[in-house]
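Annotated sample (chain length 237).
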Amino acid sequence: MTDSINVDPAELEKFSSLAHHWWDMESEFKPLHMINPLRLGWIDELASLQGKQVLDVGCGGGILADSMARKGAHVTGIDLATKSLRVAQLHALETGTPNIQYREVPVEALAAERPASFDVVTCMEMLEHVPDPASVVQACAQLVKPGGWVFFSTINRNLKSYGLAIVAAEYVLNMLPKGTHEFEKFLKPSEMAGFCRQAGLAVTHSRGLQHNPLTGRYWLNEDCSVNYMLATRRSHV
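Output written by the structure step:
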């Protein structure tokens, strides 16, 4: 793997080592399974997935990609973690998920290959794991058609997010493996908005993702102080 690829080998290894757990609802990926209906519902409400050409960037084991295909979208999932992609492909085969394909390709390379090819692009829980998140945002903007939607999710960078997303989630509650996140890679909404503007994307909506560890409940609201999602659109010109 060359230095020009926007990837951290340690991050790839981290997720590859957990690949066999992707579809275990009680594993380290349980939070992703819990929040997926919320993410899916919000994306579908804004972008109306039925019949759309959709790209899921950093798809991992295919949790979101699979659910978008089941909403009637034609989905391509991309990732650089080979083992995770194999799990995603196997799950699609086993469950008969329609209209879905997976590719091991950097998002920047796909942007050069297939510019303006997708109605919707999603990039969830990925930006805080790559060396150059602005490059990923730019590539996502290149991949979406004029007027199309690009959705991002990541983690804010502040004392509250450090306490909840790292100390509590990884060390106190053991919801995630220790070392899953690095605080300095978290991204403030203002930084994300800057990346989007530079890429020609307009931020139209935002949502915070909340969790009550006592009840296990997740919900969306306006509080973007820890986990948050952005809905953006590429201009029509």
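Annotation: The chain has a mean pLDDT of 91.
Annotation: The domain at 9-234 is CATH 3.40.50.150 (Rossmann fold).
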